[in-house]
Design goal:
256 residues; alpha/beta; four-stranded parallel beta sheet; 9 helices; globular
Length: 256
Amino acid sequence: MPNELTLRVSPEVAATPEFLRKEVERVLRGKGLLQPEEIRGIHVRRRSIDARGRTAVMQLQVQVFGPGEEAEWAAMQRAWNEPRAVYLPEYPDVREAEEVHIVGAGPAGLFAALRLLEQGVKPVVWERGKDVRERVKDLKGINVNHVVNPDSNYCFGEGGAGTYSDGKLYTRAKKRGDVRRILELLVGFGAVPEILVEAHPHIGTNKLPKIIAAMRECILAHGGAGAFWASGGGCGAGGDWGWGFSLYCWIGCFGG
């Protein structure tokens, strides 16, 4: 098992690998644990900032890998450098599988679709608004022309209401479930690995749309389907994520 340390250091030390290593070496020597030459790797597993005093302090939870832990350190490095291979499961092809229909391509809908895919069930996702790229045009219409598309705006569309806010990913809920697994999936689809470390992870609005699109592409690539209502066009539930469907198609595809 790696040695685990809790450190309180300056922001400069936390941001500089050389300075952080010297601090880790100092603490390990004081505890009579590893010698500097025995350290195989250092991984910051949790990082938060304490700004209550006059000087901000970074609190770090650090894992230090020593002799005999080379394989664990290599696995940690691989997770950081190849997150898609490490964090995304081997999704099966579900083209011929039983279908489950999901209304809404917000966070709950997208992650429900991915979970169904993982379980070998074909997800069919219906979304009132437009895809993340098309939504940008409607947001410009709001900000520049003061025209609101009731079906495609800051609230409605692929990715949900948070896609174009600011991308923060923390919750105060106590019954949160496996939050880390959600963060790992986001990293697998393109978020920076730092969100697995930060106490208040933040993807960023500039990056989130590409991650949402990557989720949709993964669902489609493995046989899932869906459609965007607001974009117009035909029903796409037969195999593609169609660019929209009419109310008649909505009712027809659900057997109404």
